[in-house]
Amino acid sequence: MAKRFGGKHSPGGATSDAPVVARSASSAATALLFLPPIILVFTSLNESPAFLVLGLIAAGILAGAAWMLREGLKAEAAYNERKVARRPAVPRKMLAAALTGFGAALAAYTGESGVVGSLLYGVAAAGLHVAAFGIDPMADKRMEGVDTRQQDRVARVVDKAEAHLDVMKSQIEALGDRKLEGRVDAFQQVARRMIRTVEEDPRDLTAARKFLGVYLMGARDATVKFVDLYARNKAEDARTSYEALLDDLEQNFASKTEKMLLDDRSDMDIEINVLRDRLQREGVSLNTKGNE
Predict the structure, then answer these.
(1) Can you give the pTM of this predicted structure?
(2) Number of H helices, E strands in the chain
(3) Of 41, 168, 198, 242, which has fewest CB within 10 angstroms of its CB?
(4) Nearest in space to 99 (alpha carbons), one of 131, 129, 65, 67
(5) Alpha-carbon gap, residue 43 to 64, rounded angstroms
């Protein structure tokens, strides 16, 4: 049952920069992996035509592996931050490891390592990649005691909601306006509070479905239109209207989430009272003071 819970990741609780720091560290690591293919391109320029082509292909494969790893780390971070989640449909980190091994083998072959030596380099590169970054989550994340079908419905709705929020974020970031980015981020925190509430108690999905579906889709579309307009003429009236929309959405999302939490608290109180009456009928005393 959804309830307020304490801790650094709780709504209204202490905040933590750990997820942000982790994502920043991952981004730095994947950024470094784009250097080898760049170096390989330049070192291949003085080779024979055949080795030049192989070097360029290897560089492209290694760059693709770095990109695939970056996307895999993003998917894993989203998976780890959620209480109910489906495993990534595409094992990006494992594909990145395979591409890294293949690219390294081709690059080694251009250096006259021979077929066997190149294969060994490839296997070593793939193994080190897995050791450094791990593999993708292999199982769906579920909550005990909650109907599996209901959790699957929640996971699908949450996936779509997060996709809408990601589009909003990427669109606003394209403007390079820190104030707008902060305003959208504040709204997304409120929206994600509703998402986490639904994950805590999937029974809240019915009440939240319109907010996480229709309203977030509308917010996404409004963001796309606003960015397109504001990027062309910096219309201040459009900015004011967009910020007013965010204010309204944030207020409605926060109000609905509070109502969901209060309803869950009322349900819990009813269940406690029913249980207390049942225990009293069974002759079980709930007067703990008299038993001390």
Answers:
(1) 0.56
(2) 10, 0
(3) 41
(4) 65
(5) 19
